[in-house]
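Hi, here's the filled form for the chain we discussed.

Project: internal
Contact: R.S.
Residues: 967
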Amino acid sequence: MAAGRQPPPPPPPPPTQPSPSVRAEVLGPLRLLVDGAPVDVPGTKRRAVLALLALAEGRIVTVDRLLDALWPSEVPESGRQALHNHVSRLRGHLGPAAARIETCHDGYRLALGHDELDAAQARALLATARTTVRRDPAGALRLLREAHGLWRGPVLADLTDVVPIAAAVEEYARLRHEVTDALVASAVDAGRAEEVLGLAAASSAADPLREPAVLLDMRARAAAGQAPEALRIGRDYRRRLVDETGLDPSPALDELERDIIGGGGGRTSARPGESARPATALIGRDAQVASLHRLLAAERLITLVGPGGVGKTRVAQEVARHSGAATVLLLAPVTDPAAIPYALTAALNLKTDQGDVLSACVALLGDTPGLLLIDNCEHLLDGVRDTVDVLLASCPGISVLATSREPLGLPGEYVWRLAPLPLPHPDQDPSQVPSAALFLDRARRVRPGPPPTPAELRTVADIVHRLDGMPLAIELAAGRLSTFSLTDLRDRLDRALDLLGGGSTVADARHRTLRATIDWSYRLLTEDERRLFRQLSVFADGVDLDTAERLAAELGPENDPGSTLARLVDASVLDASFEGATRYRMLDTLRAFGQDRLAAAGEDEAAAERMLRWAVELTAWIATAMTTEREPEADAVLRRELPNLRAAWRLARGRGSLDDASAMIVALYDAITYRDLVEIRAWAEELADDRELAAHPRATAVLGTAAEAAYHRGDYRKADRLARRGLETTTDSVGSGRCLMVLSVADLARGAYGDVVEHALAAAALVGPHRECLGIAALAKAYAGDLDGARTLNDRGLAAAVSPSMLSWGAYVAGEIDSLAGHGEQAERNYVRAIDLARGSGATFLVGVATVGLQSVRASTGRVHEALAGYRDVIDYFARTGNWTHLWTTLRNLAELLRRLGDEEPAALIDAAAGLAPDAPVVNGPRDDGSSSPHPAGVTGPATRAPGRAAVLETARRAIERHLARA
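And the returned structure, exactly as it came back:
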């Protein structure tokens, strides 16, 4: 560069381009504007993506949420790519404003200013108008007209099939109600009622049961000089409300009618916070109302929580109605937390001119005693929490009763969980039980007629049971009697979520259908909480804490499982029970909703596999624990989880999953052998008939288990056949051992004692001496007369026994040997020990057989009354479980005692029936039933032919009661 030469100056920067403006409009057909020019967005899916991003109002919308919304049934494999393409095309539509759609780590965000979304603008205009209406009524009226004008027609009408968009449409409908009501009220107060007459009439006609709209229509008419028309509207509304809902209007209607009649011109503002006074009695809640009154004398903040439809609002209103100075703040129509103080001013009938609205409420309430009822807090928890905190701190005289589907979370809060109505038990008169009484009361209003018959009352009891005792569901069901008969209604309750809705005229849209009520709670959950809720719905009788936490951790490993579970309990979609082991259950109506959502999310297959894995793992643990000293714990778990295992069993059979079904049945062998769980025995026999079983690795074990089930059903011939079939297809030593054990007890029933010993000892060699095999062989030797050999075998078995039921079995066998040896006192001690051990471990079959032996000893020593009472109980037990092999033995022992008492006729009848019964054990020789002497076979005495089994049982029971009465 030459010396002294200056470089040329840099070129001037290009002029700054203003950022293009973007506006999304959702209060009508979806519209997108860039720099004021409308942009066409074609395609339903792409328009739905745009709407979802706009509705988030600047928040991130996750990819998963967008996918679930676009494809609720099942997201296709190409779903993520399709979503990416739609977002890319939307950026293209935005042109110079493409950067407004931001890609975040887990979703997308549409950056919009406060004035760039019409819904947010309407909300802001409403809030501003409420704060300025007293200071600048003309300005407030202008703001409200502007807000109302933002609605351009049906809101997103072509996109309401998308669930989140449909929910937003409902929210904007409520917002429009608020704007319209405020506009009409402001115009009336400003002396310009004529300008809003058409708007007030249209608002009232659109929802003729919405009381605030009706009252405003009346005020506008009266202020415009149409008082007679205003009063007619009031009369029509009163009649309509009673006819369609059974409710009376709130006192605000009476107040407004008096004002209009007195020439007040409708200027007096009605109090929207007043709740309607019910025309029907509150049924089944007297105790709860009384308890809440007592609590309010000591507690300043009580939150009444429970699932949607349980009756929280109705109970709280009853408390408020009898609490003297009570203010009712209804939050169901409020959608914005910022509007809570304004809703409170309306409930207090307070006109605020300026300043902090909440402070004005505090100043009015002061230290005056009173009750504030805040109803339906769950969707505005943060705002309610802040408001209540201020009120309690600043107004020492007030107490707050809140209703919510979850607690507020404030210090000092007393949480009262409202349960469903009590359900009728089989021995109760349903009409005297609250749940059925509520149904009958509402049914009489729909279909008057004669009192229900006993059969109809039983149907009502079934209906309220299937509706979980939930008052809303019961009232909706009773309303359906205008269309269905009682039995038709009951038969259709498997579709209760959809059946119980559509015809209700309840003012609150959340309660017009059972599905809407539950969906309101569901939408307040996070996605992780919804996912856990859906997966838990497959468990018919809830889960314990370990299962719930394990499931939560598996579904959302990044979250604390306990916290997710606690949120579901707090949100009242899951109930926690602490009686015994902690248990989490869902109401059946909530389970049905969860399973619907599970299918809609495409998660039903994974949930089924997860439940079957749980069932297989649980039954395997039960099988192991039942062979140890932990048997009582395993028995308790088995009985507690039986409803869930039943669901898993049907799931496995429905899916044709032989692996899962066989694993469960083989693991439940001890449940089948020693417990009165007849249903599980039926499962085993069902599986044994499966044509696919023969080639399965567990075939022998399944057949051995099914043979044991058949034996306990009294069919020891079928038990023998199944056991031999299992041995023909031997696949494992445990299965073979089970088949041999069944053969040994079937041999015992036939009196083939040599075969018993052979089969029982062979089984012991396969399964070990700790099982019952040596005791079975000992019984055969004892009945054959070899008492010393019997004691030797039984002592070996007792020495190896570990579980309470095997110790009980050894004590029972010892009692049999002592009884045969004539050692009555020692036999009784062994029988009693066997009964005690068996009862403690849930082995009810052992309780039964040991009780038979005990009564035989007592009868032989002259303790007739004790023996008769014992026989009565054990006959009932074996009859209930269907074990006729042991029942016949027990009846024969009873017949022997009756002969000793000189009661020959029933004794002969029992022996005649037993002698001809194919499932009765042989009687020639000592037996395995606790008796120490043989019974005669065949017919004796006056009986000439065998009666039916029911007649035998009736004869036996009458004879027992007759002799007990004489004693």
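Let me know if anything looks off before we file it.
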